[in-house]
Each structure stands twice: as structure tokens, then as C-alpha cells.
């Protein structure tokens, strides 16, 4: 199933918040991404209907296996691309913002070459 870039951003945010906070509610996503409560509510409904998240009776959000797979892929790309840009001399803040812009659109081929390059640059 295809998912839009915004959906990938929501899933990535849920993954990162879960790692930081332990539990995630919609308000945490609002605070993390800076979107309105109604926008997040609509997005969470769509993600739930498409099988990417589950929400319990207390409003806690968890990723399904499909949602976690997407979130981990996007987050992995984000971290690697941020590191790559920082290695080129870009500030951490700008690198993170730029990585967020390209992590969705970069081809798998290009990403794999950047990944191989970064691995080759690490001290042995």
C-alpha cells in the first residue's frame, strides 16, 4: 500500500516520540510537528483506517507492523542523510531540515550509494 509523504512524516514522528516518551498521544504529535489538533486527528484516523497505527481506549497510539516498517525506513534515511550533510560541513540544524525534505524523494539507488559511502568513511 502506498502512503503519502505526510503520512510517512506522521509515522516517523510517532516512532521518534515513542522512543523519547515511551507512550504517544495525538497531542504529542501536535507538539512535535506543530500542526493543529484537527489536522492530526484527521491524519491519525486515516493512518488507523489504512492499518498503519492502532489507538487504545486511552488514546495511546502504537504503530502496526506495516506502520513500523515505514517509520523505521524513513527515520533511518533521515539519520543517515543528516549525518552525510553534517560530514560535508552543513550545520546540524540545517542538515536535519534538509534531510527531512529529501528523505522521501531520494531514489533507493542514490540512498544506497550514500549509505555505502558513509560506511566506507567510518574508521575501522
Account of the protein in words:
By secondary structure, this protein is mainly alpha-helical. It has six helices and two strands, in the order αααββααα. The protein has a two-stranded antiparallel sheet with strand order 1-2. It is elongated, with a radius of gyration of 16 Å.
Spell out the blueprint of helices and strands.
Blueprint: H1 5-21, H2 26-33, H3 37-49, E1 53-55, E2 61-63, H4 65-87, H5 92-102, H6 108-121
Antiparallel strand pairs: 1-2
Helix pairs in contact: 1-2, 1-4, 2-3, 4-5, 4-6
Helix and strand element order: HHHEEHHH
Fraction of residues in helix? 55-70%
Contiguous low-pLDDT stretches (5 residues minimum) are none
- Name the beta content range: under 5%
Number of strands: 2
Main attributes?
124 residues, mainly alpha, two-stranded antiparallel ribbon, 6 helices, 2 strands, 69% helix, elongated
In short:
The protein is mainly α and 124 residues long.
Amino acid at each position: 500500500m502506498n502512503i503519502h509523504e505526510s503520512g510517512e512524516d506522521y509515522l516517523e514522528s510517532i516512532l521518534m516520540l515513542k522512543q523519547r516518551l515511551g507512550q504517544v498521544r495525538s497531542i504529542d504529535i501536535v507538539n512535535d510537528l506543530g500542526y493543529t489538533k484537527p489536522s492530526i486527528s484527521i491524519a491519525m484516523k486515516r493512518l488507523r483506517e489504512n492499518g498503519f497505527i492502532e489507538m487504545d481506549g486511552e488514546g495511546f497510539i502504537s504503530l502496526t507492523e506495516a506502520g513500523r516498517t515505514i517509520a523505521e525506513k524513513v527515520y533511518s534515511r533521515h539519520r543517515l542523510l543528516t549525518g552525510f550533510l553534517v560530514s560535508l560541513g552543513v550545520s546540524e540544524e540545517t542538515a536535519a531540515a534538509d534531510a527531512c525534505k529529501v528523505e522521501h524523494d531520494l531514489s533507493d539507488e542514490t540512498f544506497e550509494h550514500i549509505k555505502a559511502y558513509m560506511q566506507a568513511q567510518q574508521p575501522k
